[in-house]
């Protein structure tokens, strides 16, 4: 991540397959080895829904569509590499086949009712997605 | 706005005073002379709710608190100067006194039921805030 004067925008996706949340086990630091929601930086020229569909495809192999906005997570300490604002979306799988992409060592299916400790603030995101 | 490889994050605030939405008449291009919701860039180290409260204070003089997230607006063409992703919040006024800040030539109170043509995609944001 290069020096920035403003936070960067990222997206994270919550997709259920067989009633489990699709996560990836992180290959790299920070949080190496921990499950994380699929996601990444928004590129110039794409909307945030387009970005999350692309990131989920790249990291998990799934084709999805956005169902709803879950929330915005902007705590400056949420990523130790620098301040990012992430926009979390719930998606539904509409095709593709689960396989780990380049940023992931493997796919992890997470029980949404009893999730393991996840990378970044992803447990908070899962909690918000589940609702009160 | 400097060259960027990723979109920047901004915030916009919807605050009612006397049942009217608080807007500012833009002093500068783009959209010079048109009403716009108060808002601006998120700074490093602040959350998006903190950013919108700060921008509303700087541009309108009002002290506010966030009531709810209205939506995320990320169309690449929404700002002709470059791609920004804006996060819109509904706020309630809790103090201060309305006066135009440095980015605004004057405060405009907008009828939320019949808003004038506004800058950027702010009519879309007002529509989303009003709901279906």
Topology:
The structure is a homodimer.
Chain A: E1 8-17, E2 20-26, E3 35-36, E4 39-41, H1 48-60, E5 62-73, E6 84-96, E7 104-110, H2 122-130
Parallel strand pairs in A: 1-6
Antiparallel strand pairs in A: 1-2, 1-4, 2-3, 2-7, 5-6
Task: Explain what the structure shows.
Two copies of one chain form a homodimer. The first copy, chain A, has two helices and seven strands. Chain A is α+β, with helices and mostly antiparallel strands and about 130 residues long. In chain A, strands 1, 2, 3, 4, 5, 6 and 7 form a seven-stranded mixed sheet that branches. The longest helix of chain A has 13 residues, at about 50-60. Chains A and B meet through strand 5 of A and strand 5 of B.
């Amino acid at each position: 991540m290069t020096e920035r004067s403003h936070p960067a925008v990222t997206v994270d996706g919550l997709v259920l397959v067989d009633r489990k949340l699709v996560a990836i086990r992180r290959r790299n630091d920070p949080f190496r080895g921990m499950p994380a929601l699929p996601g990444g930086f928004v590129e110039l020229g794409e909307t945030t829904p387009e970005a999350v569909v692309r990131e989920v495809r790249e990291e998990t192999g799934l084709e999805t569509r956005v169902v709803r906005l879950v929330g915005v997570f902007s705590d400056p300490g949420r990523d130790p590499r620098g301040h990012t604002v992430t926009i979390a979306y719930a998606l539904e799988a509409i095709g593709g086949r689960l396989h780990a992409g380049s940023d992931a060592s493997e796919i992890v299916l997470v029980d949404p009712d009893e999730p393991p400790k996840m990378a970044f603030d992803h447990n908070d995101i899962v909690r918000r997605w589940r609702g009160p």
